[in-house]
Amino acid sequence: MGSFSYSLLDQGNGECELNNLAVLPEYRHRGLGTQLLEHSFVTARKMGCQYLNIGIVEENTVLRKWYEQNGAYHTGTKKYDFFPFTCGYLRRKV
Q1: What single-letter DSSP state applies at residue 50?
Q2: Between the CA of residue 35 and those of 22, 29, 31, 70, 79, what are the distances in Å?
Q3: Ramachandran region of residue 69, left (φ > 0), alpha (ψ -120 to 50) or beta?
Q4: How do residues 21-65 score in pLDDT, each as one tens digit?
Q5: Residue 48 in 3-state DSSP?
Q6: What DSSP string describes the chain?
Q7: What is the CATH number of domain 4-93?
């Protein structure tokens, strides 16, 4: 298992969804997450996407702020009965 990962889903209409961007705790605060996010932007463009959609746990304000510092903007929230948290959604042009 690597120390970091992410996945992209082509949603059609020039949009990709970023999933599972993760850096193991012992490797955090070294800029790996930012490099990984930048790599996802390049990969999304190569896939023909113009926008990257990101879902987060809305209550994780540190993560939301990090994505916003990296060019994403908040587009809304949704509460599902089967999750004990609120889903937050962000978007960024790639």
Answers
A1: S
A2: 12, 11, 6, 11, 31
A3: alpha
A4: 999 989 889 999 999 999 999 999 999 999 999 999 999 999 999
A5: coil
A6: --SEEEEEEEEETTEEEEEEEEE-GGG-SSSHHHHHHHHHHHHHHHTT-SEEEEEEETT-HHHHHHHHHTT-EEEEEEE-TT-SSEEEEEEEE-
A7: 3.40.630.30
Q: What pTM did the predictor assign?
A: 0.90
What is the pLDDT at residue 36? Answer: 94
Q: By CB neighbour count within 10 A (0-12 exposed, 13-18 middle, 19+ buried), where does 59 fall?
A: exposed
Q: Is the dihedral of CA 89, 71, 73, 57 positive or negative?
A: positive
- Domain range annotation of the chain: 4-93
* % of the chain residues with pLDDT over 70: 98
